[in-house]
Write a sequence for this structure.
């Protein structure tokens, strides 16, 4: 099967954001390893074609045309509309590149991401089946992240709605997201196919970790947004740190606005100023540097207010970590409370503190058993089991189109 993936980010790009890129990095490689021809069309800073572990990557710079005046209009676009304008332009350029490649290579199916409306112009494709994978329902996600619904933000929502509703076939990796999309867009059915996951074995780089090893620590990693509940964690930690004198806390991830409009890193430092010698904040890092931190953490905490079976959860469980996460969105699909992890109510600092304390105080036998259960739970997402389900879904779409 020849499969094209259309995305705003991929792991080959130096500025990739994380979740979507990491998911695609895994699923495309797994499909290629099982004999499929896989192409990725990604927004980039270079116009070129490269190979990545058996996958062909088409890197696309969002330019209308170097010879046209349209690109010179960029500085004239009002700042509030600049992001949706760039999304629109990137979607057009990805569509144009796919069309040029499709003239030589006949694809069987196209999977587009809902993020940044990169599939906007694929609504015009009538001969090749197009499916949209829903990472989120954007208005709910932005609200949880504390993003103000400005005119520019609402325009991004509108463009993404056009892209999503212009696609006949949609699926999500969790029932929570599928339900949100159905309700938000008035779509009668959105399928659910869980994210394929296998634990990568990157070349280990311990150069950063070596500066912090030696003491037991609680770890949060991922983008430090309100959606991820980082501000709730900052509110919960003083009580926890007072109880456990030996506990260190490490945050790893890119900064974002806190509820009071400061950067989240400033918010954390303020809330935990009495424990500044026990709290470390580090910027996001690639897996070769990140994995040593995950592997050596005593407990990983993921206090999301809303989420979508994030790579942070899958990676931590794959490495056999005891996780404290939240109920009500996605973690229940892989974590059974008290068995393969600990779940607490989202947005509740007191409940989160209790959950962290419970995890930290597990005796050795219970701790080891929870680690084992976490790894067993995540094993069901291994590509050997999950990729055939995805391929079967693709084939059912292709067969349905061909029967018409």
């Amino acid at each position: 099967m020849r499969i094209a993936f259309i995305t705003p980010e991929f792991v080959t790009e130096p500025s990739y954001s994380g979740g979507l890129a990491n998911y695609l990095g895994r699923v495309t490689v797994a499909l290629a390893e099982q004999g499929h021809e896989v192409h990725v069309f990604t927004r980039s800073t270079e116009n070129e074609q490269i190979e990545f572990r058996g996958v062909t990557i088409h890197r696309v710079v969002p330019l209308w045309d170097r010879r046209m005046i349209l690109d010179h209009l960029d500085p004239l676009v009002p700042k509030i509309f600049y992001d949706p304008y760039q999304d629109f332009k990137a979607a057009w350029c990805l569509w144009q590149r796919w069309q040029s490649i499709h003239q030589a290579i006949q694809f069987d199916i196209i999977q587009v991401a809902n993020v940044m409306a990169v599939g906007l112009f694929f609504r015009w494709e009538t001969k090749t089946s197009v499916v949209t994978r829903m990472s989120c329902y954007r208005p709910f996600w932005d609200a949880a992240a504390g993003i103000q619904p400005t005119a520019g933000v609402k325009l991004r929502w509108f463009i993404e709605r056009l892209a999503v509703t212009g696609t006949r076939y949609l699926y999500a990796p969790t029932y929570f997201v599928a339900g949100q999309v159905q309700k938000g867009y008035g779509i009668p059915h959105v399928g659910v196919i869980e994210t394929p996951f296998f634990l990568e074995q990157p070349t280990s780089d311990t150069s950063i970790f070596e500066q912090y090893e030696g003491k037991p620590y609680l770890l949060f990693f991922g983008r430090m947004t309100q959606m991820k509940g980082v501000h709730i964690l900052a509110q919960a930690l003083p009580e926890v740190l007072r109880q456990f004198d030996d506990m260190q806390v490490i945050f790893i991830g890119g900064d974002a606005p806190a509820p009071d409009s400061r950067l989240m890193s400033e918010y954390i430092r303020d809330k935990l100023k009495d424990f500044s010698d026990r709290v470390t904040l580090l910027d996001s890092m690639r897996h070769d540097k990140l994995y040593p931190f995950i592997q050596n953490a005593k407990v990983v905490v993921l206090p999301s207010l809303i989420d979508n079976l994030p790579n942070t959860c899958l990676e931590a469980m794959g490495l056999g970590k005891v996780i404290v996460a939240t109920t009500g969105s996605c973690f229940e699909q892989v974590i059974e409370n008290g068995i393969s992890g600990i779940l607490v109510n989202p947005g509740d600092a007191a409940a989160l503190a209790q959950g962290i304390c419970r995890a930290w105080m597990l005796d050795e036998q219970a701790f080891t058993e929870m680690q084992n259960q976490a790894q067993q739970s995540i094993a069901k997402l291994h590509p050997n089991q999950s990729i055939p389900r995805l391929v079967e879904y693709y084939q059912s779409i292709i067969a349905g189109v061909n029967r018409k």
